[in-house]
Each structure stands twice: as C-alpha cells, then as structure tokens.
Amino acid sequence: MNVFKKTKRMLRYLAIIAFWFILVSDLSAESLNGRIVYSTQHELRIIDLAQEQTWKKPLSIDLPNTTDMAHHPSWSPDGDEVVFEYTQIINNMNFESKLASLDIIDNSVNLIKGFQLARKGNYPKWSPDGKYIAAIEKVGTKMFRDKAGAIIDQKRFCRLIVSDCRTGRSQDIAGSFADYSPFSWSRDSRKIVYVDSDQTLIIFDIVEQSSKRLVKGKCPIFGPNGTVYFIDLDAHLYKIDSKKDPVLVDEGDWNWNRLIAITNDNNNVIFVEGGNFLMMEYSCISLFDLSSLRKQSLSKRHSIIHGADLFQDN
To answer: How big is the chain by its Cα radius of gyration, in Å?
Structure first.
C-alpha cells in the first residue's frame, strides 16, 4: 500500500511538472524581432529572435586565441558591430583588457584605439545615437579586516566614463559607485541610469550634467518610453518613472541575475537568469512577458554568461 501511495504521489508530481513545462514551452516569441548577443567566456553567441532554431543553436563566434576572453558585449546602433571587453592572457598572473569590436559581416575582431580600460568588468556600451561609448573603470578598493588584521571582505569603487567615438577623448560623468554595477542608456542618448555605492539608482543627465536619486535597487535598464525597470533588494521586478513612486511588476521567484533590455513594443523583458541544476550553477538568456507574467528560456544553459545585449530595428 505504501508503495502504491508513493507511486501515485510521484505520478502526480510528474504530471504537475509536465503541465508546467508545456505551459512555459507554449510561450511564443513570434511577434519578436531582433538579435541578442551574449558572451560565454571564450566566445560570443548571437540569437536571432525571429528564427527559433537559433535559440538553442546560436551563431557562435570564436576569438582569435583560445585563451582570450570576451565580456559584456554591446550592439552598435546600426546592428553591424558588437563592442566588448577583450581580455588577453599574458601569463598565469597577468592579463590585459582592451575595448574591441566585432564586425558582424566578416566576423573580424578589431581593437578600438584611444579608449583605455581598467583590468576587468567594464561593461562597455554604445549610446543609441552612436556618438559615445560608456564604460566602468575601477578607481579603488576598500579592505575590511577583522581584529587580527585578516581581510574578511573588500569593496571596489568604480566610476562611469564616456568616450567620444570620433575623438577618443573620455570624461568622468559620475563619481564612485557600486562594484561593477551594470548601467543603461536612455533611448535619446541623453541619460544614463546606474547604481551608486549605497545601492541607490541614479539617473545622470549628460546634457545638463545633473543627477537625480531614485530608490534602492540593482540592474536598472531604461524602457522605450523612459521608464526605468530594476530589481529591488528582495529580487522583485519593479518599474519607476522619475516623477512617480516605484510600481511592482512581478514578485515571482525567478532568479533575475541581470536585466538586459525591454523590447521596443514594451511588452517583454530580456534578462540573464541564474539557476541551479544537479548542484551546479548555470545561466541562460530568458524572456519575461509583461502581460502574461510568464517566462521562456531563449538559450541553453551555460556555466556562466558574461553579459548580453539586445538589438532591434526602430
């Protein structure tokens, strides 16, 4: 009898799992267009949203050397290039990071001159109008020690710099803030939203050289209409207009690793999802439908994803 009950209970659980899998798999991205580029460490991968067969088998682009690494790719405004942090291993103890671009037409990788990066984690990102590339630069590290003097924690401080693509000149547009926190351009290339050192969202106006503090959160991104989407400190998805209070979008238990973009129709969130399978952590590119509040995976699982970006025609 106990065996029968256990079998019946197991079949019920399997039925629930199968129903949920069908429900999630039934989500459709037929109305979507655009391309997602993401990095898995030693290669760049591109998903064409209009071609579902590329979701699990994306275009894969290798770097010149097998030990080279690509981090935080970002599309050019015309979708013909990808700018990313290109890290070359010098020896076991040293490596060098530079800004590089990938030509989508011939798959060639070229270094961008006149823009010096710090060692790692710089999130280079083109402005939508193509005039600037913004990136994060490390400016210092604060060590926390116990009474015996041993290091128990550390906090890195960074700054946000913007480089003119025509002249190569860079300027510091924001003071120190949180450790390598992602940032986002507004669609008019006038503002950048980022997270400062106390985890507060900041909107910086490049034209007026002024800043506005919003609320605490992480991974902010601008939507098409200027609304900022972000993850609060309890891992819930919110949106906020600079003149209004934040609005809860979803309090589901998705693992919002990093928000990537809001689609042009303002209906979907592209994000990097984290998870754990058989005691091993993984990441994948996922889509969250803001209308149905349902999620769909767009890529296979990877051990790690070093950033992603979405390109869509206007």
So the answer is: 21
